[in-house]
Amino acid sequence: MSLYDRLQVGGLDEDDEGGLNIKEYWAVIVRHKFTIILFVIIALVAAAISTSLQTPIYRSSVKLQIDREATRVVNFEGVTPREAAYSYDFYETQYQLLKSRGLAKRVVEQLGLESSDQFKAKEKPSFFHELKRFFSSVPAADTSKDSTHSESSTKGLESLLLANLSVTPVKNSRLVVVSYDSPNPELAARVVNALAKSFIDTTMERRFENSSYAKEFLSDRIKQVRANLEESERKLVEYASQREIVDLESKQSILMQKLEALNSRLTEVEADRIKAESSYQEMQSSGAQGFDSVSDSEVITTYKEKLADLEAQYQDKLNIYKPGYPAMKRLQDQISGLKRKIRQETSDIQASVKSRYQAAVREQAMLQSRMADVKGQILELQRKSTDYQALKRDVETNRELYNGLLQRIKEVGVAAGVGSNNISIIDKGEVPGAAYKPNLKRNLQIALIVGLLGGIGLAFLFEHLDDTIKSSADVEKITGLPVIGVVPEVRLGDESESLALKAYAEPKSAIAEAYRSCRTALSFSSESGTPRILHIASSIAGEGKTTSAISLALTYVQAGLNVLLVDCDLRNPSLHNELALSNELGLTNYLVGGYKPSEIIQTGVVGGLYVMTSGPLPPNPAELLGSGKMESFLQIASEKFDVVILDGPPVLGLADALILANMANASIMVVDAGVTRNDMLKGSVQRLRQAHAHVLGALLVKYGQGRSGYGYDYQYHYNYYSYDAEDAEEHPKLAS
Start and end of every Polysaccharide chain length determinant N-terminal domain (predicted)? Predict the structure, then answer.
């Protein structure tokens, strides 16, 4: 970042390089605050209208306590599992019974709801529901026919009752809240209380019926089980006597232990046999010399070492003695003896490996034969004991059932079943004094949240669709140019007041400070300082180009420089109007010929400021501006004046600005915050660069308060260094 950019970046955030910029999001919300507020108001009004159009619904609730009841009518201890103190399936069953059609039918009949017009009254559909039906592509069903059919059948009344019934368990307790909604508050209380009473009555009736049925069932079952037990015991005794069976379990246990021991020994022997067979096969395939057992034998190794020593001696003495010499013959006899011993030892090792392998094979075969005998004995024993074990299991099963039934029939009693009630009413349903729904407060809260979210979403949508320049960061991102100044938006109190002269008239104002800051940035823009010929350009007309040119010229005059301000917009000049000067003679008169610059240049509103207006509008502006006379004029003017500022025409659609930018030492693009579009600015800068113009940077004007929405930070920085006329009186100036 350049020095002049750092001087002006007082309003830029250092964390704009990456990450989430909360201030930008907040700026979007502030900029579209009226859209958000309007959306919220529409949502609140719609919610209020919808609420007012709905039929008031009243809710009456009764609170029940349901205790766990473990029914043990036909349960058998040790056969069926015990249920926990709190069983999910038990309570879920109770909740489904509360919403059953049978219970609803009973309540309808008890209260005589078949003839109740209040019960048949339907809830009035909401405003949003009607809108949904109106815009729906699927035609709505004929509710009049459904209503007539529903009202004329008991099934329809049950469905209507269940549709308005809700069962809500109280968390971490045995309580449940049963509620009923109705347009009539008295009817809501009557229905929910009748439902609770009917639920208790039906539970008691089921318990009584179960107890009576259980006693009869258990009595019949005991007789049948007793007969089965006696018959099974008789068959068991007869079978044992015929087969002379005393104790099958102990004999079978002994045989199983033998089989297990044989199996373990067979595993070991089989492993030894595999090892011996592997050694034997290795010996057969590799021969005596390549066999590991022969190679690893210490005796053979010793013999081989001695043989090598003797052969070495024989070779050494062969150089001295002949083979027939007695000493040489003795060495040959020793060598032959060692070779015979090596062969004999090798043969013994091979015979040992073969014998081990054969012994392992014989032992494995013997163990396998023994295991087959034991398995045969076990199978024979099991075959004999199959019928015996089946008869014995029948006896044990019948005895267990008989004992369990005797125990249960002692516990079952009609009086005990009826006397205990596991359901009780904690709070009865009362007539509600206020409607449960629609809830205006809740609907408005929801509408407020929806309105805020929808409004913010709409604001970001508008922001996404808005492709205008809003901040200096946008300028740098789109063009790559630095922002040499940011001029805040100024609202004039009087239409006759000139915005272009405000920086001079009010030197302590924010706009004056902004242009002075721009002047400072221009002084650091190059090694030579401020460009001698400065071209002020914009994408389109009305962006504040002329105002910026006049304000910059006045700031240079305040710095003690002589400034020439030239109106080069030969199509729509406005410099003479802003400064209240005559436009009878101007630049076109000089370029056409017949006038000297000194005859055309006028004195500005302050000493040191000189102005050359455009003059009469020519038919060929581009040819005049691109003439050699224009170049010579600028050369002379740059020598006579400290700074020459050219107020040029818009860049887009015209060649005039490109000609001026090529002649000037530097160009500045004036960007109207909130008006200049991204593609316009990008296209303008590209055109200037194609014309080989030196585009020094951009000047962001009309920034803040209105369209750009970022003005707070910049106005704060400018106002920090400036104060209005009233503050000036309170802060006396230092003596010069």
Answer: 20-111
How far out from the chain centre does Cα 171 lie? 30
Token reading at 463: 């922001």
Average pLDDT over residues 629-635: 91
Distance (Å, rounded) from C-alpha 375 to C-alpha 42?
92
pLDDT number for residue 135: 58
Q: Give the phi and the psi of residue 637 in degrees, each rounded to 5.
A: -65, -35
DSSP state of 429: -
Q: Which candidate, 60, 187, 20, 198, places its Cα nearest to that of 120?
A: 187
305: how many CB neighbours lie within 10 A of its CB? 11
DSSP string, 660-686: HHHHSSEEEEEEETTTSBHHHHHHHHH
Torsion sign (Cα): 685, 690, 691, 695 = positive
Q: What is the mean pLDDT of the chain?
A: 77
**Distance, first Cα to last Cα, the chain:** 36
What torsion do the CA atoms of 272, 275, 278, 280 make, to the nearest 10 degrees?
Answer: -60
The pTM assigned to this predicted structure is: 0.49
CA dist 350 and 190 (Å) reads: 107
Q: Domain 521-711: which CATH class?
A: alpha beta
Q: Is the model's pLDDT at 359 over the cut of 70?
A: yes
Cα separation, 176 vs 170, whole angstroms: 5
Residues 702/476, Cβ–Cβ less than 8 Å: no
Neighbours of 439 (CB within 10 A): 13
Q: Calculate the dihedral angle through the C-alpha atoms of 47, 49, 51, 56, rounding to the nearest 10 degrees.
A: 180
pLDDT tens per residue, range 137-185: 444 444 444 444 444 456 778 888 888 888 999 988 889 999 988 888 8
